[in-house]
Each structure stands twice: as structure tokens, then as C-alpha cells.
């Protein structure tokens, strides 16, 4: 009986699980920080134990814009999919905006105001100095379209909107709390902030997301937010889901430009 009661207690305390027997890492908004992405991937790989299956890597979107090397980030992610088949990639609102610009430059011009210029430079195209110079923009647009490789376009067009694993639901931005997870709009999944962030109702699954930056990652029984504003703070964060345990791994750019990686476990109560 003692054994049974202990077993029941254990079951009661069991938290949400993504995949039994395999670690899952969900990586937050990279925004052109190629060095932090490489550091984080190396850190995750170095932590792999002998005999352990490859962890599943889920990228939460916003690979491009603002930071210096969006093109390098996409190239690294494409390579990663070759090295570690099974990695999964969500679309952020910034990938949506970049694709829109590639398709329709006038409709997509707004993209240049929220980080797109840095992305153009990473592909070797200098954006016009004057935002109102439509002819210069038309020219830059043509150069940019020619500069983005077909492999990058295929990657951007193949991104997912949601990933469901066990008790977890992975999205870029969040979900509308009064609507079932199966009936969310693409717009909300990629753009929502409130009422998702502050709502207190439990959702069908724990939502893992990026999009809204904070100095520290967020973790409670409704949601895990891992956007730590990499292009601004120099810290890129991923959450590690290991059984019903939860922790964070961070790649940090030091003052001398080197990148260090550290793990941080959350105790069960905090999780
Ligand atoms: Mn975003």
C-alpha cells in the first residue's frame, strides 16, 4: 500500500510532457543573430549524453530582421535540417513580412520599417536611403529578389504554423484564449500579444511561444515564453522539455564578442 500511495502521489505530481524518452528544445526569436544560434546549437549538441537519442529541435520563428545576419541564420537552419532531419520550423510574423515584400514590393514596404533593411543588407543589397523614393525601392526590390537563393525561398515557404507534441502546443506568438486550439487564425498565431499573455484561464495545452520579448524567459502552467530579445540583449534562449522537467539553455554574447552557453534548471514548483 505504501508503494501504491507513493506511486499515486508521483502520478499526481507529474507535469506536462512533450515526448516520453526524448528531450525537446524550443528555440526563441533569433532575429539575424547567427553567432548566438551557432552557440546554442553547439551547446545543445555538447550536452547530449552517450546513447541518448538526438533531441528534437523546434524553432519558434522570427529568424530574420533587426540583427546583422539573417541570410546566415537561414543558411544555418537549412544545413541543420540536413544534419538532423526531424527539426521543425515555425513561421514568425517577420518571415511572413519578408515573403510579402518579395511578392509585392509596394504592399510589402512596411517590412523595411521593422527590421527588413538589415535583412536586405545581409543578402548584399543596400536599401535606399530615402524611404519615399519609390523608384529606388523598385530597383532595390529587384536586386533583393535576385539575391535570395531558391533554397531560402523554399525554406520560408515551407514553415509551419503550429506544432503539437503531447501536452504542449508550439506557436510563434500565442493563441486567442477564448477559442479552441484547433480553430486559431494564422494571424493570431503569428502576431497576438494580448489578451493571450495576461489571460489567466488554463488552455488545452501548455503554449510554448516567442514573439513578445522579455529580459527573462517566462514559465508557468499556461505558457512558456522564450523570446529574450536576442538582437538587443545578446541572449538567445531555448526551453528544454525533458520528461516532465523544464529548464532553459541560453547562448550569451560576451563583451569581447565570444558566445558562452549555460543551462538553468527550473525547480518543479517554479515550473
Ligand atoms: Mn514575432
Automatic annotation (TrEMBL):
Gene Ontology cellular component terms for the protein in this record: cytoplasm
GO aspect biological process, one term: RNA decapping
Residue ranges of domain Calcineurin-like phosphoesterase in the record: 23-215
Pfam families according to UniProt: Metallophos
InterPro entries reported for this sequence: Ap4A_hydrolase, Calcineurin-like_PHP, Metallo-depent_PP-like
Molecular function GO terms recorded: bis(5'-nucleosyl)-tetraphosphatase (symmetrical) activity; phosphatase activity
Protein name: Calcineurin-like phosphoesterase domain-containing protein
Species this chain originates from: Caulobacter mirabilis
